[in-house]
Amino acid sequence: MKIDEIYQRFSVPQNLAEHMFRVFGVVSVVGANWTGESLDWNLLKKLALLHDLGNIVKFNLTGDELQLKETQKMMIDKYGADDHEATGKMVKELGFDDESVDTIQSKSFGNSVAISESSNYLLKILYYADMRVLPNGIGTLDDRLSDVRNRMPKYTSRPDFEDLIGASRDIETQIQKSVSISLPSVNNETIVPFISEASTYDIN
Predict the structure, then answer these.
(1) In degrees, to the nearest 5, what angle opens at C-alpha 12 toward C-alphas 156 and 112?
(2) Are 85 and 79 in contact (CB under 8 A)?
(3) Terminal Cα distance for the chain, rounded
């Protein structure tokens, strides 16, 4: 099944699809320049295209988005109101195993210290690629960390917030050791050659 068919099946809005396409693009750039241990890049690209599949259940929709509200209610009724749980159920429904679901559900900013200490490079790269995507496109890691600092009080109020910041930078350093290009140089133009394959990527 192609990813565009999956997005249609789960009523993924265009802006959410574009976010996952960009994460796919960053993963693809890292993969194309990877010099480290052998990794399952096909699986990682699939996870990049599915990692926020259930996010529609948490959208704050306005009154003029009636059709999307109806779709959201349908998704909540079927998969629940928690976006992480909804995504996990959807990904399992597509035939992925518990390990793949766990990788997706473990890649949050609040888990960055554990990710930095992990030996799981699929998780590290998925987390990092997601951290490089801002609402208006690809930014540097520092851009995204500033965005977290300014917009996400659920993290900034945590006593370990600076540890989370430091761990995110450590993850970039860890990945950089096995990539032949400068990671901060990855931008909107860098991912263009890979984005065209995203919508028709085969998930089976």
Answers:
(1) 30
(2) yes
(3) 6
CA 96 to chain centroid: 16
- On whether the pTM is more than 0.85, the answer is yes
pLDDT (tens digit, 9 = 90+) per residue, 21-72? 999 999 999 999 999 999 999 999 999 999 999 999 988 876 667 778 888 9
Structure tokens at 44: 């990682």
Nearest to residue 74, comparing CAs of 88, 60, 56, 50? Answer: 56
Find out whether 53 and 10 touch, Cβ atoms under 8 Å.
yes
Single out the residue of 96, 14, 93, 10 nearest to residue 57, CA to CA.
Answer: 10
SS3 202: strand
